[in-house]
Amino acid sequence: MLQFMVYFVIMDDKNDEPAGPLGIENWDECCRVWSQVPKLVASIGGNGSDGSNGDQISNSSSSIGSQVPAVEPYVSQIEPTFTDIYRSFTSQQWRRFVDNWLDYGSGNVEQNAYNGRWFSSVDQLLKNRRKTAGVIPTTITLDYAYKFELPERDWLDPRMQTLIQLATDQIILVNDLFSFEKELMANIGQLPVTTTTGTGSDDADRQVLPQMANTVAITAVQRNCPIVEAQTVIIDTIEQLESEIIKLVIDWETGGRQSLPLSTGARQFINGLLYMAGGNYMFSIGCDRYNKFK
What we know:
Elements: H1 2-14, H2 27-34, H3 36-44, H4 55-60, H5 73-76, H6 79-88, H7 91-113, H8 122-132, H9 135-139, H10 142-145, H11 152-156, H12 158-188, H13 203-208, H14 215-223, H15 227-254, H16 264-286
Helix pairs in contact: 2-7, 7-8, 12-15, 12-16, 14-15
């Protein structure tokens, strides 16, 4: 499982780092690699609920999906874990697992399709990043890692889907908040001018903000406000999301009218999801990727 997560992070980074061979400027390459994942899944046990054999990604990548060369090493290295997951999961668990991995892959293709034009609103960015943040593909393996089963009724419960979205948005905004200044400085460094950064009023800042796939940057552009004000908006939004998460879980735990009690599997899944949100916060503080001083 640890090896699986290592290769998962490699795949994610390859699609997220402009300097990498699968950077945001290389959409064809991104499509080529992500068209390999549904084919890998299909060779193990079929692609999700509709038997479509991964058309949602292959269609996104046009003709690239039909001419996939040898599987990339970091794609092939996830195959043993995928196979073991298939063998240990029920058909419903496998469908959830595959459907969400295909969403993750198609989201990466969609993100790369913007090719520098990026997103015009925070809502537009969140809609895409809910797929590409990797929260669901990670948490969907909890019942495999800890040997429990999340019942289908709990997975489909609107409260569970709301909780997953709230936690995913919290993780996305925390990542953006911590990585913003490092992303800003990296973009400023590509400009032919030298200026002070971080005030929200410098010409260089304003040149690069619209090019950044970051909710702090988009907020500053949309509101035409200083960066520090945009950061405050994101912090306030994070706090609101956390309050909504706590309220939802408490209400579900205590059980309202016409509410079925939480199953053991649902409780374990929720605990893992919340642990991931808290762990992501701690990780973002010290990780080189999110620390402007490293």
